[in-house]
Each structure stands twice: as C-alpha cells, then as structure tokens.
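Reproducibility note. Readers wishing to regenerate the assembly model reported in the main text can use the exact inputs given here. Chain order matters: entities are listed in the order in which they were concatenated for prediction.
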Amino acid sequence: MARLILQRLFWLLPVALGVVTITFFAARVFGGDPTELYTPPEATDALRAEIRERLGLADPLWVQYVRYIGDIARLDFGVSFSTNQSVGADLTDRLPATLELGLVGLGLGVLLGVPLGVLAAVTREGPTDFLVRGITLTGMALPQFWIGLVLIWVFFVILGWLPGPVGRLPIGVDLPAPITGFLLIDLLLLGDMERWRLAVLQLVLPAGTLAIATLAPIARVTRASMVEALQSDYIRTAIAMGHGKRAVWFRYALRNALLPVVTLVGVLAGYVFGGAVLLESIFGWPGLGQYALQAIESSDFAALQGFVIYAALLYVLAFLAVDVLYMVIDPRMRR
Amino acid sequence: MTRAPLSWSMRIGLAILGFYVAVALLSLVWTPHDPLSPGVGDGFLPPSVEFPLGTDRLGSDVLSRLMAGTQYNLGIAVLAVAIALTVGSILGVIAGYYGGATDIAISRGVEVFQAFPGLLFAMLIVKAVGPGVVNVILVLSFVGIPDYVRLARAEVQSRRNWPYAEAARMVGNRSWQVAFRHILPNSTGPLLAFTSINAAFVALVTASLGFLGLGLSPNTPEWGNMIARGQDGVMTGEWWISFFPGLAILGMTGAFYLLGDALSDLTDPRRRR
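Running the prediction on these inputs yields the following structure tokens for the assembly.
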C-alpha cells in the first residue's frame, strides 16, 4: 500500500508542473503587461523600462518561466502588490478560515446527506423517496451564492434570528491572536465562551449554505449506490438467513454503499475550494476565496496564481486522501 | 423495433427546456419593456401589474431582463456543451482506439486540466482572455473537455475488440472508420446522458462567472449578473431583484439534470427497471 501511495505522489509531479505552467502562461500571455499595474499613467518611458527591468519582465519569456518554476519549487509565490506581503504568507494566514468553513459545511452535508440517501433508498419509489429526490434535485440545480443570499434574506433580514454576513465575528468584536487559526478551536482553548458563541452564530449561515449545496449530491449518490447494494446477492442472502431489516440495511448494505460516497466527498472538497470564492464574498468571510476575488478584481496576478496553485494542490491532495481511504475501506484494493 | 415509453423525468425535462427555448425566441422579438435600458420605471419598485417581477436598482424591468437573459444562459450552455462534446469525443476516441503513446499523451494532458476545480479554472482563464460571450463559451467548453475525453476513451477502449469491430476491420475499413463510424455511434447513449448533466454544470458556472462580474459586460441581462445587481437590495428588503433570476436558473439546471437522469436510465441497462 505504501508503494501505491508513493507511486501516486510521484505522479503528482508532472501534474503540478502542468498546473504551474498553465497558470504562468495564462497570466503572462493573456494577462497583459503587469508593468501597467505598478506605474502611474503619467510615468515616462524610461521609468516604465526601469520598472520592467526590476520586475524581471524585460527578460525573454522562457527565462521568466524557468525563474518562476524555481521560485515555486522553493514555495515562493512572489509578492502580492495589493497587500505588499508574500503571497505564500497571505495564503497560509487565510487558509484556516476557509478550512474551518469548508470542514463544518461539508461535514454537515455528509451528516445530513447520507441518512437522506439511505432513507430514499429504503423507501424506493414511495412518497418519501420522491420528496428526497425533489430536495436533492433542487439543491443541485441552485447556484450556491443564491442559496446563501436567500438564507441571509430569510434568517437575517426578515426573521432576525441570525447575525448578518460580516465575517467570522460580529463587527466590533476582535479576533483573538491565532493559535491554530481555527477560530472555534482557538476560542475554546482560550476558554472564551462568549466569543465562541458569537463565532458559532456567524458560522451558521455560511456553513448551512455549504451544507445544503453539498448534501444534495451526497444524498443522490448514497441513494443510487444503496439501491444497488440492496439488490445484490449478499443482501438477499442476509435476508434469507433471517437477519433483521436494520442489521441488513446498516451493517451490510450501507457499508458497501458508502464507497462511491467517499469518492464524491473528495470531488466535493475541490468544489468547496472553487465555491469558496463565491461563498466568502457573500458572507464577508476572510478566507482564501475572498483573497482570490480581490486578486481578480485588482488584477493581482501573483496572488491569483498563488491561489490557483494552492487550490489545485489541495484538490489533488484531497483526491489522494480519498484513494488512500479507499484502500483502507475496500479490502479488494489492497492486493 | 418498439420504443420504450418516455419516462416522466424525460417528459418534464424536455417540456421545461422547450419553454425556455420559446422564451428565448420570444425575447428576440418582444419583451414587456426594453431589457437593456435603465429607467423604464423608478428604481426598486416591488412587483406590480406593470412590472410583474419589479424593477432593479437602475429602474430596469426585471421580467424583461429575465426573458432576454434566457438567450445568454441557455445559449452559452448549449454551445459550450456542443463544442466540448465534439472535441472531447474526438480526442477520447483517438486515445481509446489507438492506445499506446497517443493515449498516454492525451490522457496525461487531460489529467493536468482536471487538477483545477472547474469553476476556478474558468475564472482564471476568463480573467486572462478577457470578457466576451465567445470567450465565455470557449472557456466553459474547454473546462468540460477532459470529462468527455475520459468517457469516450473508456467507452471505445471497452468496445474496440468486440466482434462487430473486428468484423468492420476485417472487411477492409480503415481504422478511423471503425473508430468513428462503428464504435462511437454505439457509445452515444452514455455521452449524451453526460452532456445533459454537463449542461447543468455549465449553466451554474456561467451564472457564477456573471455573479462575480467576470465574462460579460455589466449591463448584460445574464442571470448571475442580475443576482449580483440585486445583492445589496437583499439586505434592505428588495428581494425580488435577486430572487427571480435564481428561480430561472433552478428551472433550467433542474431540467438538464432530469433529462440527464432519464437518458442514463435509458442507456444504462443496470439502471433500467
């Protein structure tokens, strides 16, 4: 098994190189001349040339490319001109906010989606099944940002039950100095229950949005694979041998049916990173997504490249984790 | 040959898509008000008889913009998916039929593009190539191509040594004829089913790009764009500007999913009841 994992990790190298190459050329070839972003419009040509020289843009493209690869290999993503900090540090600072929201949202999605899928499968073709399928179809067909806006409208604007979309803590409440960067854990470590409660309330709407968006595909795949499992020979045998309904459903069928769900959660992890851009912009969440959006709006290519590479690597690592998990659960994969 | 009766999800999906096509065509010749001009009414008017879905911040009629938006959202989805299906299947058939170095080159190349989450990739490239309807279509088709390649490759690979393919070779067909005329047509079912699911994804990404203000000019009555325009209104109670475009997306995307489901039920014998 260790050999298989190493093999997979080895295959990541060409993929990573490809990702870096694509982002580089997307930015440099189509992205226009970054000098323009650093120079005032009234600058003289001599000043422009000097800035180009200093940014290393005067060299031929392939020299820039090799230098860029070298920088990335040393995990140096360059300097963002809007925050004036190293992109790597910026991204690392913001990663916990995104991870916290993503893990809670996706976790809720799994906790709600799997039981819904099982429920639909065991009541196949009945009214409950029909209802669950309606819910999952709706959840999949709606854009995440719209779900978020509607939740804000209902629970903040109309009902006033939950706080508005202003980030991880209400306005006027200070963030503690990061320990792990995960706000809920940090506040527990500090024993600050009042701020912890506020942070949980802030998290409900964005995490709920993510949960709705992810539970739909999870429930759908769980239903499909559970239906297939329930029709299989080993289930028929188990029933024939007189095992109780519940034991058959949960001990035998669900265990086997969960394999495709594990794969899906890996795919959704990537979707969470992509969707973070939209979700975080709606909820004022200070994570990677918001950073990427600011980078897009200000044409800050160093920051944008850094984010895309970061996201792609996390995405690929999520897939790798899924493969490993697969080998752990499915004895046939071990060989 | 008797045909299987059309399933309900297929009927509903087709009916809804038919409605959207009709609205798109109608909006070319008639909308209640001019969708592009601001100030046909006051700003932020709630739904009324004259403006059934209200007006937005600039006083444009939401219903007219919604109707005109169908041209963009439906048109982009259909064209992007058609391009991705064509290019992806050709590459996939080549990779699957010829195998060897060609296969490795195509498959590995495709894998690189799949390392990006679809939406991110679309954002990056649209930002890089600049706005415009044509650019958005090309980028979205590009994002979809890898999936078609993998699907077509797997289909062809599993069928290339079947007796009918052998027979086609034996009577003197060239290899590309066997691959494209004999094997590919037998794989259309799964490809079409995926195409419909992919159209739903493309529709959602189009709206997301519009919402972020990427891809199309700000006054384009694209639904994601419209939701973004109404975003501030949601906070102050003017919900209708963002709400109705979301429903329009829901209907179209849901119809694509229903159709995709029905098609895979038809073509996958394991799922046939």
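We highlight two features of this model. Chain B touches chain A through 46 residues (CB under 8 Å). The mean pLDDT of chain B is 89.
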